[in-house]
Amino acid sequence: MEKIQEVIKEVAGKFSDSREQLLEVEVQLLEGSTLKLAGRVLDDATLTVLRDALLAAIPGLVVDSAAVHVLRKPKAKMLTVNTNLTGFFAEPSFLAEYLSEQMYGWQLEVLEEKDGWCFVRQEDGYMGWVYAPYMREGAPVPPTHVAMTPVVQLRAEPRIEALPVGRLLGGVSVAVLSVEGEWAMVDCDHPGWVPLAGLRAFSDIPLTEEERRAAILKDVVPMIGVPYQWGGCSANGIDCSGLAQLLHRWVGITTRRDAGMQFVDGTPVEPPFAPGDLVFFGDPDLPLEQRSITHVGISVGGWHIVHSSRSRNGVYYDDIQAVDHLRNAYMCACTYLK
Predict the structure, then answer these.
(1) 105 with 140: CB under 8 angstroms?
(2) CATH of the domain at 174
(3) Same-domain status, 40 and 93
(4) 321 Cβ partners below 8 Å, 6+ apart?
(5) What's the pLDDT score for residue 1?
(6) CATH code, domain with 318
(7) Residues 231-250 pLDDT 10s
(8) What is the pTM of this model?
(9) Three-state DSSP class for 207?
């Protein structure tokens, strides 16, 4: 039994990143050479790794995993976010840790359901709990544009004096249903009219490296002063990696949610940095080789960055070389633009 527990613990350690992985398995019964397991895993591949490790460590062992719940199904239930913005939580409660946020139209794979909440998986693999009443089944109307204005009110009619019926947040992809003059009717949780100038057509998203770098410099300007919020990804409040993710989404590039993930997926670069390169930081009190990434900024050229800073409480420009804690905390950099 001790060897079995060691193997389970070792394999669980390889799947310990709860943002994207899940392996919670225990021994239900050991009877002769038959081992019965119980618990839950994310997918069949995770369970296979555990089974193979047990069989390799203990020849002749028979592994019965019928009581292990595999969350990902061949035909997954899909939900669409049906509100302008909602929280993404570590547990099924509004009081739980705030991991991130979900925007209107995002599609989520349902893994579990509990007491009006759904444990879901984003397209990028990030997992958490959402409040089920804010979701709906079925896919959204195929989007044609992405909202560029940080926050804009949806109007009942195509004029500024019309009754507001909701709000649209920058970074949300929407379908333009009709155009009247300088106004566009968009499909949203509360369909309404917004200024057409505040939308970027998918066909107008920059494609070249030069165009994308220039666009990032311009796109970030209206976000200056947005307050810092842990887990935030919109102009209601945003964190460092949420800002990096949003600026890349506006130029047609998908990144994962957290700063460390963003570095892993990017192409490493060295100074001097070009606009749009991502610059990463860690605990300055630790030796460089022991640091883990805790913060990300976006270069606007060289060591000058824009970032959502907790110390500044929001999105502001900074010079890494002129700010002691930034200079001392610098670790590495990458880009998605080459």
Answers:
(1) yes
(2) 2.30.30.40
(3) no
(4) 303, 327
(5) 78
(6) 3.90.1720.10
(7) 999 999 999 999 999 999 99
(8) 0.94
(9) coil
| Structure confidence by residue, pLDDT tens digits, 162-202 | 999 999 999 999 999 999 999 999 999 889 999 999 999 99
Specify burial of residue 255 (Cβ count, 10 A radius: 0-12, 13-18, 19+): buried
- The owner of tokens 């990143």 is 17
CB within 8 Å of 245: residues ≥ 6 apart: 233, 255, 256, 257, 262
Are residues 250 and 214 located together in one domain of the fold? yes
Domain that holds residue 41: 2-70
CA-to-CA separations, 222 to 109, 110, 191, in angstroms, rounded: 33, 35, 24
Contact yes or no for 174/199 (Cβ under 8 A): yes
Q: Are residues 8 and 96 in the same domain?
A: no
**Site of tokens 């028979």:** 62
Strands (E), 176-290: 176-180, 183-186, 192-195, 199-201, 233-234, 237-238, 267-268, 278-281
81: left (phi over 0), alpha (psi -120 to 50) or beta: beta
**CATH at residue 66:** 3.30.300.130
Which residues are CB-neighbours of 254 under 8 A, at least 6 positions away? 124, 248
Q: How far is CA 85 from CA 45, 225, 236, in A?
A: 33, 20, 9
* Bridge partners (DSSP) listed for residue 268: 334
pLDDT band at 20 (very low <50, low <70, confident <90, very high): very high
Evaluate whether 110 touches 178 at the Cβ level (below 8 Å): no
Compute the average pLDDT of residues 212-222: 99
Q: What is the total count of domains within the chain?
A: 4
